Amino acid sequence: MKVILLGEIKGKGGEGDVVDVAQGYAENYLFPKKLAIAATKGNLKQLDERRNNIAKREAVRLADANALKDAIDGKSVTVDAKVGDEGILFGSVTSTMVADAINAQLGVEIDRKRVELGKPIKVAGTHPVVVSLYREIRATVNVLVGVEAEAEVEQTEAAAEETVETEAAAE
């Protein structure tokens, strides 16, 4: 069954695309959620009239996605997690935790569904994570897991040593 998409659907296409989908998928999912309309002669004629507006919105979306990519690509975020012996985490780091860390530390709102983690992170260290922003536009963010806690301990120890040395020198 041919339908006209009213928004972006991952794996199918973007707004204004005419795609062929299963009839049950169209009638039970796309039509009730207002994600698509049937590709009738009248709807196709209206689509031709709206192509200019759709192209303008698409250009804005691409520009926004590229700006977002520039803002987060190559940046590092830290996710707090309890680390046990040998760098193994108690629990795991999920895509929701990564999205929340990006939001909190970089000030960029990312939907958890856009974070392509594959499987949860269960080992401390630095992990590159791909964030799908729009269609083929992707950014890579380095996620530091358990690294900050170790660095804070080292900084605290170093500060304590400096304080002791300073007090000894003052006496």
UniProtKB/TrEMBL annotation:
Keywords: Ribonucleoprotein, Ribosomal protein, RNA-binding, rRNA-binding. InterPro entries: Ribosomal_bL9 (IPR000244), Ribosomal_bL9/RNase_H1_N (IPR009027), Ribosomal_bL9_bac/chp (IPR020594), Ribosomal_bL9_C (IPR020069), Ribosomal_bL9_C_sf (IPR036791), Ribosomal_bL9_N (IPR020070), Ribosomal_bL9_N_sf (IPR036935). One of its GO terms (molecular function) is rRNA binding. One of its GO terms (biological process) is translation. One of its GO terms (cellular component) is ribosome. Gene3D superfamilies: Ribosomal protein L9, C-terminal domain (3.10.430.100), Ribosomal protein L9, N-terminal domain (3.40.5.10). Residues 13-40 form the Ribosomal protein L9 domain. NCBIfam families: L9. Belongs to the bacterial ribosomal protein bL9 family. Binds to the 23S rRNA. PANTHER family: 50S RIBOSOMAL PROTEIN L9. This is Large ribosomal subunit protein bL9.
